[in-house]
Amino acid sequence: MPRFRDALSGPGLAGIAEIKRRSPSGGDLRPDADPVRLAAAFEDAGAAAISVLVDERFAGSWDDLRTCRQATSLPLLAKGFFSGEDDLRTAREAGADAVLLLLRDLDDTTCSRLLAHAESVGMDALVEAHDAEELERAVVAGAPVVGINARDLATFEIDRRRQLDLVAQVPDDRVVIAESGVHTRAQGAAAEVAGADAILVGSALMRAQDPPAKLRELLSRPLVKVCGLTLQEDVDVAVEAGTDLLGFILVDKSPRRSDAVLDVPETALSVAVYVAETRETPADLVQLYPEDGGDVRGREAILLRDGVPVARVLDQPWQGHDPAHWRTAAGVDGRVMLAGGLGPENVREAIAAVRPWAVDASSSLERAPGVKDHERVRAWVATARS
Fold this sequence. Notes:
This protein is an alpha/beta fold and 386 residues long.
């Protein structure tokens, strides 16, 4: 398997860090960007690959790619508007492991010819689609790496919902990359649970005061959830503190029952919590517990995106304690959200023991059922993300 594809095919969400000085939609981003320094720093920050703009419209050049090749051992993606074999040969000679093919600009015959040529010279091709028609063309062409761009290259508008729906439609045997529109961990996680193997991030990194630190933040886990929210002011405090997932319990028996999924900004994800059965909801995700006799809920839940399981929620017994809870959770494969008995005082210990994908707290952050203690919410998020 070529190096670029291989680098994105491991467990978890991979990050492709993009080096670009400007963009047509955003203007100057980082005019003084030094590709050599950034490439080395992104490698240290955990990037799986690096994307380099080589087009002058982005203030890029082939020399940027050549200097990056000397500075990093990571796979390099050459990004430009390529339409012929000469472009691909230039990219290969400059040190690229992969090239971008924009279906917006290529007919099917040309795309297939360039895919074959890239393979013949040992490169991958990232075939980029923006809508359902282009995605179908990419799949029919046999593209092994498919990118779904949230940005409409004609209007420059971002549509994350459409992007995530398309990501979820890519066949499982393809590597899928969510491009554009990722500025927070929650937005990256949304792409991850939709089925993305990687996110490609450019503008958010180039605008950051410390681009490698921003990349490290976007890829860091566990995600942090605050559950049992019933008041908008508590939601707002949790979001400000950096919460990734905000949970609303829509269960009559629960002392933390919310009347509705409250307003959550697009920088975070809302989670509707149900027992036994779900209902139609505007939430991004659903957390579904089984019933457990006369108790409010069972112990283990599933996290769903559009009805598809994307993670397991491992909880304590309702109003009970299991001393083996962390040890049991540590032995579970796949994405695990750890819940039950967690708070600012023990979350770091729990993370070290379990290495979960997400951590969840509710009653430990309250001053009354369903009413959050804002200082404890802030402490919970800061400690879990530290």
